[in-house]
Write a structure and sequence with these properties.
This protein is α+β, with helices and mostly antiparallel strands. Helices cover 22% and strands 31% of the residues. The chain has two helices and five strands, in the order E-H-H-E-E-E-E.
Length: 95
């Protein structure tokens, strides 16, 4: 997707979700994945979300958790929309 770093933005709700993860190892893993998106906005394992424009999900925490984000190609920006358990992370997401 070109060279150079992308900017990372974490929406307020996603930041709260990240901070509410109960295990420090999950917080660390999620933070590392999010940081790595600056170098590779659509890494191996990222799945495009159907019905959403440029939205992807990544699994972490033994695949029980998800990071949902949008890749803004024009502005080279990643916007983290949600972080949490697979069972609840998609609630309230809009295009």
């Amino acid at each position: 997707m070109g060279s150079g770093k992308w900017t990372i933005s974490i929406e307020r709700g996603a930041q709260r979700q990240l901070e509410s993860l109960t295990r420090p190892d999950l917080v660390k893993e999620a933070a590392e994945i999010i940081d790595d998106l600056a170098d590779d906005p659509v890494p191996s394992g990222a799945v495009a979300m159907h019905g959403y424009n440029n939205m992807y999900r990544l699994r972490f925490g033994n695949e029980a958790y998800r990071i949902v984000y949008r890749a803004d190609n024009k502005n080279r920006r990643i916007i983290v929309r949600a972080v949490g358990p697979r069972t609840t992370v998609y609630g309230g997401l809009k295009g």
